[in-house]
Amino acid sequence: MTFSATRLGFDLRILETFVVVGRELSYRRAAEILYVSQPAVSQQIKKLERQLGFTLLDRSSSGVRLTPEGAALLRAAERALGDLRDTLRPIQMALRPSEHRIRIGYITTWARTEIPSLMAMVERDSPDLKVVLESYVFDDLLQAIRNQAIDLAIFHLPDVLDLDTSALHLMRVGSTQRFVAVLAGHRLSGRESVTLTELADEAWVAATGLYAENFVALCAKHGFTPNVVVSAANAETMLGLVRAGLGVTVVPNQPPGWDDLAFVPIEDEVLDIVVAEHRDAPHPFARPLVGLIRSTFATAVASRGERYGPGHGPGHGPGRTAPAGGTR
């Protein structure tokens, strides 16, 4: 029997979903990576199996495994999708040279390690792609992607506030521990971890805007109101104020170059890292770049020895996963 994608009625997105599930051998992790609900992933796999007429994945109490037919399709799908991307990329560049350029916005938190690592990967894998980088405070970053002033936005999601992301397509690229930054001689600097309630009596250096609102709401969930002594718009300034002895602060990573500070993980506090693009303005090179961004954050988390990264987060703490196109 001869099959074709047109006759079978499935599109490339279903094949891409199958490839992610086949690689991860986890419907939950696939849903997190694709930033869709787990039932949606399951429905797409079942639809593909019905159309093909054979089982691709076996699910049991011990986990998910590929059937022999599924393993064969995974190898073929990976080759086919890779060949298609490699073929389309130069054609798109030739026909639409303006799309050879992509604008990426990010919060300053990622400026020291993750963004330079990402650019090294882009230079290695897509040397003809021109990337324009722009750093923002979170509120301005959201405004920029909503107004299509940038093509992609990288940020960590607030874990208490609900944001209106109805105009955006969110793609989860990883997760990270939330840390409290304190002076090296602070009473908690030698701890392996702390709870947020242990920090209730501290003087706080806070963020501004939506991240600040999220932090206050998070503290309220833990039964206290933070004593905010000073606020700053970006992580570099916040850490500088901690260094000056004005208080402690929370950050979503452990940036290098702050040897006089200690970064102590806050227990059960995990943040989703996402890439956002505008639903009405998808960029042809967004998907390959999202893969590189995902690899960048996985490498950064592994190099810091954190417990959290892609495949963790929701289900391993209070971090929540939003449905695609929903509100956060």
CATH fold assignment of the largest domain = D-Maltodextrin-Binding Protein, domain 2
Largest sheet: 6 strands, mixed
Morphology: globular
The CATH architecture assignment of the largest domain turns out to be: 3-Layer(aba) Sandwich
User: Helices and strands: which structural class?
Assistant: alpha/beta
The percent range for helix content is: 25-40%
The helix/strand series, from N terminus to C terminus, equals HHHHEEHEHEHEEEHEHEEH
Mean pLDDT metric: 83
Spatial arrangement of strands, main beta sheet: 4-3-5-10-6-9
Number of helices: 10
Query: Which homologous superfamily in CATH is the superfamily of the largest domain?
Result: Periplasmic binding protein-like II
Sequence-ordered SSE layout with sheet pairings:
Blueprint: H1 5-8, H2 12-24, H3 27-34, H4 38-52, E1 57-60, E2 63-66, H5 68-95, E3 101-107, H6 114-125, E4 130-136, H7 138-146, E5 152-156, E6 168-183, E7 203-206, H8 209-221, E8 227-231, H9 235-243, E9 249-251, E10 261-278, H10 286-304
Parallel strand pairs: 3-4, 3-5, 7-8
Antiparallel strand pairs: 1-2, 5-10, 6-9, 6-10
